[in-house]
């Protein structure tokens, strides 16, 4: 955890059990089950048609001249007075024809390449909270040391596949250059792919440049083998802001994947009905998807969904609700209709890592998995509706994700797995503890949890009677203790250092640089 | 909660919101989605064939002469020396032809009739723990006042459809007659159907007789309209005990539904592989199902599953594991193959109402729902692997069940629900809080949770910063305060009193009576 680890990291062993904590090896997760079809074809068509009416009759308001030019050139109706772009279905169809149905992200460790599309399932670290919390040190504003710790945890826990946008904002650092510090932490403390902050062109380009340096390839080479990604939010309803547009364009121009995610809380940013929210989400997402293909045909692009409801008593956002679970499933049907990879989330709205945090996260996770999600964003560490990154929540989430990974693992089904001979070998009323069939399999037969405690009540109390939250604290402390910094070529580290130093100066001289 | 409530219960309003606690109305829950098919037809056939080999080549050991006679008469090979019954597939097939594919249970309140079969989903109260726990009074042995409180809570919370077998054992009462006290509590403090203790014939008959009295009908009339049920466990592997057999026979003779549930923890009572555990579970369940039809063709019978794993380090039972979730799904495929209603559970193995209790329960609940369960037994209040009935866990579970009920509610999908006009009415970047479309729907658009708190962090802290566990304590206290005892005809109460008094005397004179 300290500075001195940076230089002398021992070699990270891929798939090791992670120090003292039992965990699953790094793996590409596949969902072998067909996604749930919550709506029939007729209703899906109704959603689609209404979305197309929203795009062609109401349009999307944009702030960027560049975006208006691109759409005008493609045949859209651009009203420069109201900054509104209206597009026909044919323009969307043409864009969808060009967008790939899957793509990969390759980090500086090629063994940790992740695929988006098909039945692949990728878990991303929480992104964006201004605050951080753990049970030892309490709630505090985001800062670089905590940022670095979260990156260490994301590297240590194999269930986390990619780093999202700024797990906590290091607010003690200058706003215009802190992305350099977070990218640097991502690239030196982990070997995972990450999400660039695509607010404006410069931040996106810094992410692209630094990943290329870390991989020892050119930005041009990275075009064919993307290394970073970003999520472009739509300011629902129907508003696409300038900085986001610039970020999207920079990413797309360089062939780096973009996810377009409308921020659609039912009753606030969309109508109160789920069907309407999905129509609006779909229109907004397809607008962004279309833009990526107008910028650079063939750009990898993911269909993003973030539809949940608000508490109608207070207007506060709610997550992990039944409505959110349904939205997660139907949004997957929409993404597949357009042959696009699908991103969603498994958020919760609890203020503390408690029962609510657990059951809301489970509800949303199951919705995402049943919906055939390819990326579950914010999958580890999200608390307080996204306002806090939590150490204990990260541990809880890794356990939830590992349980899901095991649920998705196909059943062994060889003749011997059917166990007739084993059953024959044990008398009626006997037990199988010592049977050869058991002994030869027992170490790997079942998922071995990290957080669950299965002691009987007496033994559990004897051992201190710690509940799962207390154990979660011990687990992140243990993980930080066991963490091994991934090796990096000193020449590459020097190049990264030099890049950051140069860019820091440029930004200090000209904050818009 | 006190004795004096018994006399003067106010009229219970079906579907009321439950005093101060927001809850869903009493309802028959339907699962509108097709169950998950985790195994293909070929693999299902392998499970079936292996089960049939277990029944015909290895057989089931039974202690009851009566059971051996029944099977011998049906053509099974009965070895009276080893007490083993071996049966051919044809005998099973013939029994399955006679078993109904669904049935109903009618309590003394006909509005609370519950259906088992098709896509109905019934939630049962936890059954069987010797201990009880709440955060105020700690952990203690089961006793009648706590038993009564749990029945009040089961009556109060609309998500609980039926009462399982002895939610806690009132161990201060004589073992041979305490079932009279618990049945009496079930029938006077609630208006739900319940589960008879079918250990021996007498306890089953008392349940049947007392429900008939409470409904004001004869035992003969109840044959055509069952009012109580029971679960017959198999002592896996392949052992069927005498008392259970007597209970099953008494229930079947009187046309009351029976669920046959092998107690199959992988690695202990079955081989360590899930495929083998399912083969064994299936053989044992079908043996019991067949027995019900030999006793009384047409007896309603449910396929029960309780397959989970043990902790291979300690041998302790584990629940809500990925393996348990898979078992819940595949067991449903088996039950449907035989055209039988399907019972499973959503247990957890935590020692305390914590994150683990929540995520393990969620895992098992989703497995059960995706598996097309018709009955989720132990659905509210199960803790410590079934050794403790917990007040706070009951509240957590009711919230989890209500969330699931809302998830299963089909989406409104009228033209107006698609919301084009509503979207048109709000400018880009605006909000929908005050829109007419929102205002006319906002009170009912979303599920209103009982336990979740969606305040922002400041408001939540201002209000005391209570976590969900603390709120759960307040909620069961509030529920007991708000509880209204259901009205009962004084003549019926007198008859129940007289029945219990008479039987208590008979049992005191002859414990086997």
UniProtKB/TrEMBL annotation, chains A, B:
Gene3D superfamilies: Trimethylamine methyltransferase-like. One of its GO terms (molecular function) is methyltransferase activity. It is an enzyme of class 2 (transferase). Keywords: Methyltransferase, Transferase. The keyword Transferase applies. Pfam families: MTTB. Residues 1-29 are annotated as: Disordered. Its EC number is 2.1.1.-. The keyword Transmembrane helix does not apply. GO terms for biological process: methylation. Belongs to the trimethylamine methyltransferase family. This is Methyltransferase. It comes from Mesorhizobium humile.
